[in-house]
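Question: I have long wanted to understand how a fold can be written as tokens. Here is the record:
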Amino acid sequence: MCRSIKTLRRRDKPATHEEVVAASLQFVRKVSGYRHPSKANEEVFNAAVDEIALASQRLLSSIRVGARA
């Protein structure tokens, strides 16, 4: 979907907060169709970035490497 978002789950080092936020911003830009939201949409746009970053960080910290069903 969004080729500029890189995989953040790595074996060598965990993703930084900045990487998670950057990926979240790219995702919200892609979904919303806005590169920069208008003033009227700025608050909800930024809230979406924050929510997705939080969910992404929670996912990354919960994944068990090598786990099988």
Notes: The two ends are 27 Å apart (CA to CA).
